[in-house]
Amino acid sequence: xxxxxxxxxxxxxxxxxxxxxxxxxxxxxxxxxxxxxxxxxxxxxxxxxxxxxxxxxxxxxxxxxxxxxxxxxxxxxxxxxxxxxxxxxxxxxxxxxxxxxxxxxxxxxxxxxxxxxxxxxxxxxxxxxxxxxxxxxxxxxxxxxxxxxxxxxxxxxxxxxxxxxxxxxxxxxxxxxxxxxxxxxxxxxxxxxxxxxxxxxxxxxxxxxxxxxxxxxxxxxxxxxxxxxxxxxxxxxxxxxxxxxxxxxxxxxxxxxxxxxxxxxxxxxxxxxxxxxxxxxxxxxxxxxxxxxxxxxxxxxxxxxxxxxxxxxxxxxxxxxxxxxxxxxxxxxxxxxxxxxxxxxxxxxxxxxxxxxxxxxxxxxxxxxxxxxxxxxxxxxxxxxxxxxxxxxxxxxxxxxxxxxxxxxxxxxxxxxxxxxxxxxxxxxxxxxxxxxxxxxxxx
Amino acid sequence: xxxxxxxxxxxxxxxxxxxxxxxxxxxxxxxxxxxxxxxxxxxxxxxxxxxxxxxxxxxxxxxxxxxxxxxxxxxxxxxxxxxxxxxxxxxxxxxxxxxxxxxxxxxxxxxxxxxxxxxxxxxxxxxxxxxxxxxxxxxxxxxxxxxxxxxxxxxxxxxxxxxxxxxxxxxxxxxxxxxxxxxxxxxxxxxxxxxxxxxxxxxxxxxxxxxxxxxxxxxxxxxxxxxxxxxxxxxxxxxxxxxx
Lengths: 444, 244
Ligand SMILES: Nc1ncnc2c1ncn2[C@@H]1O[C@H](COP(=O)(O)OP(=O)(O)O)[C@@H](O)[C@H]1O
Ligand SMILES: [Mg+2]
Fold this sequence. Notes:
heterodimer, A: alpha+beta, six-stranded mixed barrel, two-stranded antiparallel ribbon, 16 helices, 16% strand, elongated, B: alpha/beta, six-stranded mixed beta sheet, four-stranded antiparallel beta sheet, 8 helices, 10 strands, 34% helix, globular, disordered C terminus, binds adenosine-5'-diphosphate, binds magnesium ion
């Protein structure tokens, strides 16, 4: 109840000096505005990055590639059969931490032909799970099936880049069921992926802005690096088809080495990213069996890459936050200064209040509440400023990095403003509460 | 026991090397319902005595009992409570808070007493009516005359129903007719049984109170009750004429 009355008194006092109070709040306003803006911008960037990372498979996607066995194993490394479909099978059956797994045998720079149109892309021979691991989405058609795999059917899924190159001007639905040649062999298109693009591209396209060079689907890696280039150019076919049609002969130096059913890659997706290390170790143990203990395989994870991104976001946040804090501290010093002046101005009033029964702590509370209200006022006005600024920034920044105001950030910013108000009021409040009533009454 | 009792009270101030005895062995008792004036030349210790009586300060030595409570040994918070509950102050320069209106000024002591808003308002209005300012409740002090301001101050001093009211030169900043009306108000309050102690340097005012306590150099040099007042009072009148 006393607190409530102190609050009313504080508001009254602030209301009596509106202009001075606003000036005093300025540092806090700027500090809160910049703190919240920093939070929102970095949250926006983090959100955009995480979105993008998810699009390309997320941290839960792990890749196993070939590597040269270590020196001490090189003498007997040929006891390992290398990466085979057996690796994928053992992981599928024995690793409870793995959701999806797919062996990959690819044909790079394959010629995709339809009539006179040719497009060069990598064709992935894989299991149906490949679709899930790489987070593909169909626009029309179906995914690969176990039957496609068992019968080694000549079917494929294609991305938008392939559609636009081989069927220029045609809709995805028109392409379904059509055939195309992969290095001269006919395949039927059973599924077409949707167009993968960054949020910024999507926004630009929605506004009718077309970037020179064709944006996303530009043939090469133009000056605008497109992270979804590979995903849009994707062609998927059953791995069995890949083996029988393209890997049955392996001519090295004019001598056929026989079929090459080795994998180029093995990818899998974890069911729980939190048990990342456990899953890696479990998989390593399984592969040590199939590879006879030869370490001719390596894990490619995105953990470090993701970590470094998170780190850079965090350091941006910290440096922005630091600048905002300096502003808040300067604002706090401003509050202390004004509160000291205000106490000096009101020594007589404090004497009167003491004479009629106010305790030292009542005076302390009155001053500290007043400075907290100034802090809170600055915080709220700063919030307003931040929202204005963010609206402006949202127009400038790329779509996927749209500033993101999180409730926690608002709480922290305003909470910090109030905290600064309390801390800044502490010394003036102490000084006021320790005034001798008699001297205070005699003052001025 | 008397409402206020001072025994061998001294108050010393150190100013550099020198020590000043603002009060020097004062013995005094004031009964409930008395109306007394403390008089003496400037620097004689009147204000110091009033500050001690009003629990704004504690003596260097000696004992000060107020309404049965030993105020000479009380801490700061206890003194605040005593001031709030048992004492009302009226100052020469009114000391109203300029940003608050009449009602809010009068409510202030009750805020520190922790009263509920509704009680505060009704009691404040009653006190304001008592001093005849019911029509100026919403005015701020700056919109009032000196006499009206002093009436507000008296209402504020009365509102917590204190045991005693102290007034330090209450008419000092007023013209003589307004001063008269304020004194008349004190007279009325006294007639209703309030204990009132005024500090003044005006012999004429002091002559009208039933008791006159005269000070010089930190000591009480005369304590006189007029015949009318004396009969019902403790006849223990101290007269000390010391010349050093
Ligand atoms: N805070 C103080 N510090 C030093 N000396 C003081 C203080 N207060 C009062 N005195 C001294 O005590 C004496 C009595 O002062 P005071 O009680 O104000 O007298 P009066 O009110 O009768 O004029 C004076 O000599 C004055 O200078
Ligand atoms: Mg004086």
